[in-house]
Amino acid sequence: MVDFCASMIRVLGGSLLGLAVLSTTLLAESTPLAAVREALQQGRADDALRGLSQNNSAEAHNLRCRVYMQEQRWEKAVKECELAVHADPGSINHLWLGRAYGEKAERAGVFSAFSLGKQVRQEFEAATKTDPRNAEAYADLGEFYISAPGIVGGGREKAESVARKLEPLDRVRSLELSARIAESQKNFTKAESSLKMAIQASRKPADAWMTLASFYRRQQRWDDMVAAVRSGLRADPEHSSALIYGAGVISRTDREPKFVMNLMEFYLASSHKSEDAPAFDVYVNLANFKQKTGDHTGALECLNKALALAQDYQPALDAKKKLEASR
């Protein structure tokens, strides 16, 4: 880095003016994408897309793909992630392309899903090969192996191999994958034990608590499910996206509606938001709960806040149209 900087100084004539020009250029290149990344995390989709409007770098395509995924615009997301991989076939771009293919596959017909399923596997495998220390890519690949049928490349033995590779990279993810494998074998005692070990191994255990809650939901252990989410809340003073994970787990059982609404409100008031739980989508879900309780004014306020962040978010547009028609 020192040699590089020295070379740049010589190229620019060694003048202070030249250094100022270089500094300004680097700042102009980095600041817009830094602002886009922040907008992505905070769920400000429109701001993020505006910040990317004149940028066609590999990272810009990747970020644009991720915004479109938040907005559930799967075709656009796939196209942008494909452009990112074409421009830079790095691990992160392969990982996000695999995720985009996966989301599209979930909504595709049988034959399209079969083709997309193979593409998901190929991209996740490429992500791990390009960067053998990318724990996030290994976790997604392991989840694919344990969830997908053998005809598109799934398989328990493959998932077990990934869990072993994950162990030195990310013990929490390795334990959670091991739990998924045990659950697929109906070894529920081992699955629960692995998930509890993941909580103990995690430095920020809120997400791990919510993963345990999701396991309890599948086991129809309702009281344990709610207790695990409450433990996750206590372990998350920053009110991160783990709360939305927990809210999603409980809401699938039609239990504790007030608690679920509280979790969403805590998250929306927090500065520690994540692209995993885009704020505009959380507002739509909160609006649905408010409408069910008869708070139509509150529901409309939530939908307007969602559209202020993502004006083209179709679920918000549809929900607002339906709400206004019912009044």
Question: What do the pLDDT scores average to?
Answer: 91
Query: So how many helices?
Result: 18
Strand tally, please?
A: 0
Strand residue percentage: under 5%
The biggest beta sheet reads: none
Q: Could you state the order of secondary-structure elements as H and E?
A: HHHHHHHHHHHHHHHHHH
Ends distance: 64 Å
What is the molecular shape?
A: globular
Main structural class: mainly alpha
Q: Percent of residues in helical segments?
A: over 70%
Low-confidence stretches: 1-30
Kindly provide the radius of gyration, computed on alpha-carbon positions and rounded to a whole number of angstroms: 22 Å
Description:
The N and C termini lie far apart (64 Å). Helix content is 76%, strand content 0%. 42% of the residues are buried. With 327 residues, it is an all-alpha fold. The chain is globular. The protein has helices at 2-11, 16-42, 45-51, 58-70, 74-87, 91-106, 110-130, 135-147, 156-166, 171-184, 188-201, 206-218, 222-234, 242-251, 257-269, 279-292, 296-309, 314-326. The protein contains 18 helices and no strands. Helix 4 (58-70) packs antiparallel against helix 5, helix 14 runs antiparallel to helix 15 and helix 16 (279-292) packs antiparallel against helix 17.
Task: Give me the secondary-structure topology.
Blueprint: H1 2-11, H2 16-42, H3 45-51, H4 58-70, H5 74-87, H6 91-106, H7 110-130, H8 135-147, H9 156-166, H10 171-184, H11 188-201, H12 206-218, H13 222-234, H14 242-251, H15 257-269, H16 279-292, H17 296-309, H18 314-326
